Fold this sequence. Notes:
Elements lengths: L10 E2 L3 E5 L5 H8 L17 H12 L4 E8 L5 E11 L4 E9 L7 H17 L4 E7 L3 H9 L3 E11 L5 E10 L3 H14 L1
Helix pairs in contact: 1-2, 3-5
Amino acid sequence: MTAKTPAPVTLTGSHVRLEPLGRHHVADLFAVAHKDEEVFRWLSWSAPQHESDVAAIVEGYLTNAGCEPFAVIAADSGRAVGITCYYDCNAREEWVEIGGTWYGRSVWRSAVNTEAKLLLLTHAFEELGMGRVMWKTDNLNERSQNAIKRLGAQYEGTFRRARRRPDGTWRDTVYFSMLAEEWPAAKQRLTERLAAG
Length: 197
């Protein structure tokens, strides 16, 4: 059976709701991340100084043909606190990448990322029929690498001199993946972690 290509969908958990990203999320996203260099340190953009900068970032997600972007909505406030995406899906080969993720610092070390990834992984493996989910991150971004490992993903290797960072230096890209047969154990661990608070 061939997997399905991701389409706009809303995924709801206890702590977060993932809904299709739209221009109406710009004000919330600016409020949680403006002028915070650490949030954008390893991304392709500089920290937004003005709401129009966030609007340009959102427009970039929305016009990327290989991207299915989600606004991450905190259940307690109903406001967008970040963005995460499916990228570069290949339904025939049954793989998809999760990436383009960032959150306002106020939700770091909270249940937000764990539940967002649980929702995305559940949808990818159980509803879209994917056999493999991938992540890529900057080799210097240890926080991201550790978060990916905590999901249960396996390190696959490093693609050297993969792309230029905004500051002109060259990024090596670290690759991780999770396979469908690894998903049940990973799902149990993630569910238990969320239940434990």
